[in-house]
Amino acid sequence: MVLSTAPVGEYDRRVVILTKEQGKIAAFAKGSRRPNSPLAGAVNPFTFGKFTMYEGRSSYTIQSADISNYFQELREDLIGAYYGFYFLEFTNYYTKEFNDERDMLKLLYQTLRALANEHIPDRLIRYIFELKAYCINGEGPEVFQCVVCGDKERPAVFSTKKGGLVCSECDGDVIDGVSLEQSTLYSMQYIESSKVEKLYTFKVTDEVLEQLAYVLDHYREVYVEKRFKSLEILEALL
Predict the structure, then answer these.
(1) Cα 9 from chain centroid?
(2) Which long-range contacts (CB under 8 A, 24 or more apart) does 133-141 make?
(3) Percent of the chain at pLDDT above 70?
(4) CB atoms < 10 A from the CB of 105, how many?
(5) Which candidate, 33, 42, 41, 45, places its Cα nearest to that of 2?
(6) CA-CA distance, 133 to 207, in Å (whole number)?
(7) Structure pTM?
């Protein structure tokens, strides 16, 4: 999937593509800014398909593309498009070259498909995507047991700085503890433990959505060392 594209010279583009085989790849699409180029519509953000490339001394060059999904509906919805751009930017931040990124690619694809579903709130899609992305990259919070002692029975609060649940016996030094609704905790557990294909199959109450927003916004502020321009634009639009 194309994560980003930028003009190079008069007619070319530099494209960042997330692949199953090689992780994140930067490649040149020569002549793709010419109106009659067969690559003109294939190297835009959101396009998903098969790309044929050859490797030069220092970079890849795209020869052809067989696109299976352009996610055209996102191009026709300003808010949906900026949610999508945020997911692309978030994915670009976390993925690496020469790394197995098939789980992130699958998550990104299913998330963009969910954006086209009018029955799932965009905000819920956002927080599901963020939480699952953290887990895929080994940075997900502990939501099944106390991060200190492993207890699963005692009442617990969620601490962003501690990285998850902290039970009533271990929370003496917790200064950011939040008592989660049972439905909020269950939603987080479901997201962390479910396969990507099963993620976008539920809804939550407004109260649970607000708690997810509070927890995950703070989690991003603590653990993600980047300000996402697309998110800033999205939040200005909402």
Answers:
(1) 31
(2) 133/90, 133/91, 133/94, 133/104, 133/107, 134/219, 134/223, 135/191, 135/192, 136/103, 136/104, 136/107, 137/94, 137/104, 139/223, 140/192, 141/165, 141/188, 141/219
(3) 100
(4) 20
(5) 45
(6) 23
(7) 0.95
| Angle of CA points 155, 158, 159, to nearest 5° | 130
Rounded to the nearest 10°, the torsion over CA 3, 66, 71, 95 is -20
Q: Which pairs count as long-range contacts for 188-195, CB under 8 Å and 24+ apart, including other chains?
A: 188/131, 188/141, 188/143, 188/212, 188/215, 189/143, 189/144, 191/128, 191/131, 191/132, 191/135, 192/131, 192/132, 192/135, 192/140, 192/143, 192/144
Other beta carbons less than 10 A from residue 230's beta carbon: 17
Grade residue 18 by pLDDT with cuts at 50, 70 and 90: very high
Q: What is the pLDDT of residue 207?
A: 97
Question: What is the spatial distance between Cα 74 and Cα 19, in angstroms, rounded to a whole number?
Answer: 21
Q: What are phi and psi of 128, to 5 degrees?
A: -60, -45
Q: Where are the beta strands (DSSP E) in the chain?
A: 2-8, 12-19, 23-29, 48-55, 60-69, 156-159, 164-167
Confidence band, pLDDT 50/70/90 cuts, at residue 35: confident
Beta-bridge partner residues of 62: 53
